[in-house]
Design brief:
By secondary structure, the chain is of the alpha+beta class. Helix content is 54%, strand content 14%. The protein has four helices and five strands; from the N terminus they run H-E-E-H-H-E-H-E-E. A three-stranded antiparallel β-sheet has the order 1-2-3. A two-stranded antiparallel sheet has the order 4-5. Helix 1 runs parallel beside helix 3. The longest helix has 26 residues. It is globular and about 65 Å long.
Length: 171
């Protein structure tokens, strides 16, 4: 179990590093670093710089220094809760999903500490219809991790463990 837990934390670290590396490449060498900057990649996918001063869906905008640091503290508390959950979790799929959430949260926290906003740049669209807000690698990891946790909580029932005598007990 310790090894699986370690893999969950390694996945979090990997997602954090990939998120920060992609943000560096997009805002540095690719030059998508100011509001209004964009780079068209595919008919349905662009890189478009958006400084996100709020949290999910633009809620709780941090339009002051106090709000910025309050969001840093709030998201750090949530990330700490996820890490604590990972230390206690026994399910491998849940550990990996939590690792995705933790890695994404840490990437966005670092942005908010460094810049005062989260760097968003991935723009998936179909013509003028945009089914998603502009997002980043960290946001995608958080969303996928949360969806995995929700699907598993609603649809998956772990099998009860058996005792040495062959009796089933709920674990």
């Amino acid at each position: 179990m310790q090894r699986t837990r370690l893999h969950g934390f390694l996945l979090a670290g990997l997602i954090f590093l990939v998120d920060q590396a992609v943000k560096f490449v997009v805002t540095g060498p690719l030059g998508v670093s100011q509001p209004g900057d964009e780079r068209l990649l595919l008919p349905i996918f662009d890189l478009r710089f958006v400084p996100n001063v709020g949290v999910s869906l633009g809620l709780l905008p941090a339009d002051s220094s106090v709000m910025r640091w309050a969001l840093v503290l709030l998201t750090a508390a949530i990330a700490s809760g996820v890490a604590w959950w990972m230390l206690r979790e026994k399910s491998r799929p849940d550990l990996f999903a939590l690792g995705m959430v933790l890695g994404g949260a840490l990437g966005n926290i670092l942005d908010r500490v460094r810049f005062g906003y989260v760097v968003d740049f991935l723009d998936l669209h179909f013509g003028t219809w945009r089914p998603f807000l502009i997002f980043n690698v960290a946001d995608a990891a958080i969303t996928i991790g949360v969806l995995i946790l929700l699907v598993r909580a609603v649809l998956v029932r772990d099998k009860p463990a058996e005792t040495p005598a062959g009796e089933k007990v709920n674990a």
